[in-house]
Amino acid sequence: MRAGGLADGDYTLGAQTVTVTNGQAKTADGSLAGSTCSLDSALRNMVQLAHIPEWEAVQMASAIPAEYLGIGDKLGYIKAGQQASFAVVDECFHLTDTFIRGNHIYSVSGDNA
C-alpha cells in the first residue's frame, strides 16, 4: 500500500481516500483498506508469530516473488549476475541498510553513501 511506512494521515488508494491511524489503513466507512506493514516487519511476523524458519521467510520475501514476477534473473538473489539490490537486516529483522544496483542508498546509522 502507498501509505506503508509513512506517518498517520490521509492517503489515496485508487479512487478512495484512506486514513492511516496507528498503522491501520481504513476507508471512510471504517473498513480495512489494506496493510501498511513494512517488509522487515512482515519478516519479523513470519519468524516470530508464525514460526516460519528464517531462511524460508527470507525466500518468501525475495526469491519467490522475483521468480513469480519473472525477474529472478535480475533480482531476488545475492549472487553474480544479479543487480545487487537488497536490504540488510539485523538479527531481529530490523532494517539496517539498503543497496540499489550495488549503491549504498540508506543506513539506519545515517551514514548514507
From TrEMBL:
UniProt EC number: 3.5.1.25
Amidohydrolase-related domain ranges (all copies): 29-97
Gene3D superfamilies per UniProt: Metal-dependent hydrolases (3.20.20.140)
Cross-referenced InterPro entries: Amidohydro-rel, Metal_Hydrolase
Pfam families given in the database record: Amidohydro_1
Hydrolase listed as a keyword: yes
Keyword terms: Hydrolase
One Gene Ontology MF term: N-acetylglucosamine-6-phosphate deacetylase activity
GO biological process, one term: N-acetylglucosamine catabolic process
Similarity comment text for this entry: Belongs to the metallo-dependent hydrolases superfamily. NagA family.
Record-given protein name: N-acetylglucosamine-6-phosphate deacetylase
This protein's encoding gene: agaA_2
